[in-house]
Design brief:
The protein is α+β, with helices and mostly antiparallel strands. 38% of the residues lie in helices and 30% in strands. Strands 1-5-4-3-2 form a 5-stranded mixed β-sheet. The longest helix has 20 residues, at 28-47.
Length: 98
């Protein structure tokens, strides 16, 4: 059974920032492809929540590589998947902010 997707304020803000950047720098088609990819991956995660790599076992935080430059962090609960943050992989691993 598919779990409900919950967006945190941080995840929503970062997603909108990425969309704005892509639209300004790369155009509408690239932006549209990115949005389609994100939502298709969210559908996949909703059906198979354990598909992402376990990033922080104690907090049950998982990560999923969306593109070469963007990674999604999320937490799985009993009935929901909470999107925590979108992370720019070019920033370096020490800056990971769940």
């Amino acid at each position: 059974m598919a779990k409900k997707i919950i967006w945190t304020k941080r995840a929503n803000h970062k997603f909108n920032t990425i969309i704005q950047y892509l639209e300004e720098e790369w155009g509408e088609q690239v932006t549209r492809n990115f949005v389609k990819r994100v939502y298709s991956i969210l559908d996949l995660i909703s059906d198979q929540p354990d598909i992402g790599t376990l990033e922080h076992p104690e907090k049950r935080i998982r990560g999923f590589l969306l593109t070469r430059h963007n990674r999604l962090f999320y937490r799985v609960t009993e009935n929901e998947i909470i999107l925590l943050n979108f992370f720019d992989t070019r920033s370096g691993p020490r800056r990971k902010a769940f």
